[in-house]
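We modelled the chain as a single entity of 286 amino acids. Its sequence is:
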Amino acid sequence: MWDYTDKVKEYFMNPKNVGVIENADAVAEVGSITCGDALKLMLKVEAGTEKILDAKFQTFGCGSAIASSSALTEMIIGKTVKEAEKITNQDIADYLGGLPKEKMHCSVMGKEALEAAIANYRGIDLKQLKEDEGSLVCKCFGIYEGFIKKVVQENSLKTVEEVTNYTKAGGGCQSCHPAIEEIIEKVWKEKGKYLHVGEEAPKHKPAMTNLQRIALITETIEKEIRPTLVQDGGDLELIDIAGNEVFIALRGQCAACSSATYTTGSIEGKLREMVSPDIVVHLQSD
């Protein structure tokens, strides 16, 4: 029998913010009814300030899924979009006074819905984000490699059992267990801290999600790069972002400048400094 906190019981028996927001500014649907848990999250956002004025949800799932969804809405109402995107699945669990380890996937679903809703609000192609998740690992629950990798990184997971608790991956036929083990070891190998599955993992800064990377690239261009170009009569247009590749076009005086290659290099340098050292900038011409 799982041990639920009083707050989990309260938010399950008397959930907050259940319902629908008509003409919502952001909508996201994650999970699947066929897999046992599904969540639809809707946001109303104030123009200009980007303050979340209201958040409502509809959840199909267990008591922990309902409690986690309810807690998430309470946590984000009143925050700006930028503040809300910093919330982690562990924050959701902590808000509820903790969740049974076997139910941590409910808090992860809440975090996933929040990321998808913010992406929808910002006009980001959710289909493209899904494609970036790589190959399908767990066919029973439809869990992809990128999602498992992200959750392992963010929660310092070390075993297949932990991955199942946080994502459901591996909880069905178990044929994907070897693939999950490979993902766990790959995560720590990439960090320069190779571990055999089951060994203690070091604490680390969580890796950025695709959504967070896109948001930070966009913010850096708007606040750190574009103002300097505009001062000199130039400008740039952000064409696309695909993983660590950023596609831009120079505008204004920058478009005809003989130093376009130098300018592009400077933009790449600033993005590598502010976002990630693996950023590559591609200059496109009309």
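As a brief sanity check on the tokenised model: The first strand starts at residue 26 and ends at 32. Confidence is low (pLDDT under 50) at residues 201-205.
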